[in-house]
């Protein structure tokens, strides 16, 4: 069998046993691992270190919920239209979550990983981005100014636990370079802080990009539970229709 054959190595199931990443699900994992630890095992293929578990927990808490954003509104309106489709409402919310609403953690990870690996001058990155009319991912926030409290807490804990390394340092330098090039203040937001810390922990950019999706699913479920108890979906739809009516 070659590596190109369509085989999954995540789990195996038999009549009396379920194996996940080579471990006995019922006999070893259930009752021992937390969900955060289990997610890491599933995605990465091994159990996390104490610091990986701590910061994965931290980031999931930091970004699970952020108010009545459009992705949450879409989920609520979907549930209002089909009250029996909880999974459809969650899917609607996730499909509506992109770099504007979910954050640019994945893009931040790619920029930071390449910049640190190549020792790129952050001022050159900032100048190139401005010349191209682009933005640097992870800098700026529509609400949190001058600081993103979630990002500051992540970086504070990374420093306190001696996890912050080259990627956190580069993220700070990139903000300084952007402020110099654009001649204005930028917020180092939660996406850039998350990416920097996870990279310093040795995580892949793919895992960095996956964390916000998992976290936001929990936030969506909270909004949908509230939608069932105190329906707002149709009111949100009416409000949108009234705002859009230009006749």
General description of the model:
The chain folds into 2 domains: 11-63, no CATH class; 70-238, Cytochrome p450-Terp, domain 2. The protein is globular, with a radius of gyration of 21 Å. The chain has helices at residues 25-29, 35-44, 50-63, 70-81, 86-95, 105-118, 122-131, 149-160, 166-182, 190-200, 205-229, 233-244; strands at 11-14, 17-20, 23-24. Helix 4 (70-81) packs across helix 12. It has a 3-stranded antiparallel beta sheet with strand order 1-2-3. It contains 12 helices and 3 strands. The longest helix has 25 residues, at 205-229.
Q: How would you state the average pLDDT, rounded?
A: 92
Q: Name the strands of the widest sheet in spatial order.
A: 1-2-3
Number of strands: 3
How many strands, what sense, and barrel or not for the largest sheet?
3 strands, antiparallel
Kindly report the name of the CATH homologous superfamily of the largest domain.
Cytochrome P450-Terp, domain 2
What class, by secondary structure content? Answer: mainly alpha
Helix-strand topology string? EEEHHHHHHHHHHHH
In what range is the share of β-strand residues? under 5%
Runs with pLDDT <50, length 5+?
none
Number of helices: 12
From the 3D structure, determine the CATH topology of the largest domain: Cytochrome p450-Terp, domain 2
CATH class of the largest domain: Mainly Alpha
What's the domain count?
A: 2
**General shape:** globular
